[in-house]
């Protein structure tokens, strides 16, 4: 555990499920002793429809004020109920550029996103989740609408294609200390006859599940996650050390097809 508090950044569009995303960020903050910062940015085309400069300025000011009021209305109950420090910022501009600059300036220890219904990539380009995973090297929490990690929820961890190295990272280690059940390890192998290197499991209480890789593997894992009451699945990012890890394509499949919240770990050199 580091000396100063961790900083958790929530990126939000302030739409329907924002409150549940912030509540999961609060749950995470209570576990690891962190402060929360909420950031929201709108595209100019979503705000300004008039060619008049005076009208545009007035409209932008109104939109910024609306964002401020909406964020305050969302976060104040959490501040009062859970005694957690939540700050916020908002703006108008190119969404990816504004977020990239904000991350660079604030240097969060973890980013929290709400999970989308749509796939990460569509015909118009990358969605925010894909952009964050490409541009930010720290851990990312993707909150499921059906299965968040609220302050009232016991933490049941799963680990996908990982080994105990995932818990050597400081933030992850703090998170693991709050789990209330044995770790469930889900491992995908090319063939069940193949000897799977499941070594370096965290402790003797770890429960291992092995799945043969095929078109139905992710669906089966989703079912086992539900059966074992896993509400947070840890996913290692690819690294260069030869350990058993997930490639980017597998991570996208998991994001799109499982109904639990996901904790995607930091990049490792």
From TrEMBL:
Span of domain UspA: 7-143
InterPro entries with a match to the protein in the record: Rossmann-like_a/b/a_fold, UspA
Pfam families: Usp
Protein name: Universal stress protein family protein
Source organism per UniProt: Algibacter pectinivorans
Source species taxonomy: Bacteria, Pseudomonadati, Bacteroidota, Flavobacteriia, Flavobacteriales
């Amino acid at each position: 555990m580091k000396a100063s508090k961790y900083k958790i950044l929530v990126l939000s569009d302030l739409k329907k499920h924002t409150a549940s995303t912030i509540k999961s960020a609060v749950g995470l903050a209570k576990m690891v002793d962190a402060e929360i910062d909420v950031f929201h940015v709108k595209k100019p085309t979503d705000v300004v429809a008039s060619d008049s400069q005076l009208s545009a300025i007035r409209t932008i000011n109104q939109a910024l004020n609306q964002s401020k009021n909406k964020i305050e209305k969302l976060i104040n109950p959490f501040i009062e109920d859970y005694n957690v420090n939540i700050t916020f910022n908002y703006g108008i501009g190119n969404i990816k550029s504004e977020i990239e600059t904000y991350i660079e300036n604030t240097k969060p220890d973890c980013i929290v996103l709400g999970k989308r219904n749509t796939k990460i990539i569509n015909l118009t380009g990358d969605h925010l989740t894909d952009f964050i995973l490409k541009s930010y090297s720290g851990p990312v929490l993707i909150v499921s609408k059906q299965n968040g990690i609220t302050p009232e929820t016991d933490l049941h961890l799963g680990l996908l294609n990982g080994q105990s190295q995932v818990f050597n990272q400081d933030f992850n280690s703090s998170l693991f200390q709050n789990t209330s059940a044995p770790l469930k390890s889900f491992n995908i192998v090319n063939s069940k006859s193949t000897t799977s290197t499941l070594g370096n499991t965290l402790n003797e209480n770890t429960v291992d599940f092995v799945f043969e890789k095929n078109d139905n593997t992710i669906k089966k894992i989703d079912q086992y996650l539900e059966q074992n009451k896993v509400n947070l699945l840890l996913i290692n990012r690819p690294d260069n050390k030869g350990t058993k890890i997930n490639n980017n394509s597998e991570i996208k499949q998991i994001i799109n097809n499982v109904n639990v919240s996901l904790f995607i770990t930091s990049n490792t050199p």
